[in-house]
Amino acid sequence: MKKIFILVLTSVLCVNVFAQKGDKTIGLNLGYGANTSNPLIGVRGTYNLTDYVTVIPSINHFVKYENVSGLETNMDFTYFFQTPKVPDLYFYPLVGLNYTYIHFDEKLRYDYSYLIHSNEFKKNNHRIAANIGLGFSCFYYDSLILGVEFKYVATTTFYQPVILFNISKAF
Known about the structure:
Layout: H1 2-18, E1 24-33, E2 38-48, E3 53-65, E4 68-79, E5 81-82, E6 89-112, E7 115-140, E8 144-154, E9 159-170
Antiparallel strand pairs: 1-2, 1-9, 2-3, 3-4, 4-6, 5-6, 6-7, 7-8, 8-9
């Protein structure tokens, strides 16, 4: 688990370090996964391929809640549309790929006349999924970007709506 986390974190940071063209940002995600009922925290990077097309790699950790925790990595592509009335507000559709690791850890205990029976249940799910969603970004000052995203993560056996709030620093 630690090796996967370090590998993905390094790849997210390398996108920002080795990019030769375009604007780059690095930021923080805070959000909530609706079906697993877990809050999440993560890091994200962005790289502008053109003035309007952006690639957003991110890694998010689902905080353990009711014996469920997880890790997801995303590679999303967006196309920015500027709002006509507010020039610093942009909205964007997003599509992308997702790898999700979900860990279930449940301990069952039964008491039959003071005889305690303990049973541990652990299960790991690995899924590759597709992301589709919509986001809004607002530029504050010269290099601070605040945003909100709503994504729908779907596989053949699992789906989950995710809402993310993010703050990023542009370079």
